User: Fold this.
Amino acid sequence: RATATMGEVPEPSPQAPLAVLSKVELRVSCKHLLDRDTLNKSDPCVLLLMQSQGQWMEVDRSEVIKSNLNPVFAKIFTVDYYFEEVQKLRFEVYDSHGHAGVGTHDDDFLGGMECTVGQIVAQKRVTKPLFLKYGKFAGKSSITVISEEISGNNGYVELAFRAKKLDDKDLFSKSDPFLEIYRIDDDRSEQLVYRTEVVKNNLSPIWEPFKVSLNSLCSCEEKRKLRCVVWDYDSRGKHDFIGEFFTTFEEMQKAMGENKVQWDCVNPKYKMKKRNYKNSGVVVLLDLKIHRVYSFLDYIMGGCQIHFTVAIDFTASNGDPRNSCSLHYINPYQPNEYLKALVAVGEICQDYDSDKKFSALGFGARIPPKYEVSHDFAINFNPDNDECEGIQGVVESYQSCLPKIQLYGPTNVAPIISKVARVAADEERTKEASQYFILLILTDGVVTDMADTREAIVRASYLPMSIIIVGVGNADFTDMQILDGDDGVLRSPKGEPVLRDIVQFVPFREFKNASPTALAKCVLAEVPKQVVEYYSYKAFPPRCPQPETPDSNLSSPQ
Assistant:
């Protein structure tokens, strides 16, 4: 096992679930789309689908661009890129009809194109014809997808623009301005970075603040030239040019803090014709904030501790622990499935927890002294301190509690999720990336309190915690897959979606004959991403690396 101090990066060993994902940004434009509308031009929108287990699943969709057969979409699609997988993508272009939604009728389908993430990443820019059903060409229609990898040193910048005294382009009302920002690439081509919303009937609009990655804004080069254009919106797609200005990210950064930066918005034609022409208005950058994007290791090395809680199912369906057929049977020569799963996952988590103390809870049993059913008891029977010393301490508490309890039921896990969530909520209030909670639930059956569990998971998705559920034994775990939001978004009974996917469910039987590292790798693979997603959403940076103390060696996972 390689050990590293806080100041240096631990070497991830080959099995370590630390594969830092590459994220790829995709930008889409189309040319020569079919015209499906009789009076106006088509109003195109792009759907991005990804193939998962042979099924096409919608990942995201672009905005609708009114009345335009050569749209450049402002929407940036972000996909996770796995070098070792073939990730099939499908782009479908539809003529949108507002309220009716997108993709409902064949006659609104303007064409589709399939490719892989790898192809787009390798070629950086892919242009392909669009096809209708049955392999027919959609006229001369084509789609172009441009990819950019979000690199580790990349960040996001948040910009807030307004304009003052813009030219009025409308006869009976004021202009309806929107702003576009283009990055000028080395080959002089222009890449649309962002398009603001339209502010109706206003010559001094204040646009909503927006975030873009530094990569897409300026390819992480502060001196790269940017072209900013202000238009007067026209519902038929014939927008009127108001003016433009050129700047760089370097110049924009003068707007940090209390300062503001402003530019003359110039129409070159007017400038040539009119001697006294000054501008067609001014554009002001009110505020600029830079958010760095951090990796899992940045947080861990900044002193973020992973606090590990295990919850064990003591319901009667496990069988009498004295009987060798029981899932809780203690065989002196061979650990049972509960112990195998606990040790495999716990051994990796303990490397990220400096005090090596783990909370160990039980549910679904009658416990002493009164033998009432409890759904969140400490297996060391110390209600004031449910922590055990290391994985070995958990194993010993588990073995000594079995003879003292009566296996009962039902299988309710919401109380334990809520219990860990309360501790995580206290941690969240510190507004620091100092502790992240992993709850490992080991259960032999489908949970009884599914509605409460879904509600508890939705609440927990807003907190610094992840939930791993390992199904032990041979039950039918189909319903448990619902909790693992991979096939769709998990929702509370009222329909509220999780903020982020925090549950990983795995049946232990799939790993029965594999090495313990295979189980750990599978259930912990998502955790680095979940940690980064949570702290990025909260905009909490990593804490400063702590000075080295004798116990704070950080071991990389085995």
Observations:
- The chain has three domains: 23-150, 156-291, 296-538.
- The chain has eleven helices and 28 strands.
- The radius of gyration is 28 Å.
- The first strand starts at residue 3 and ends at 4.
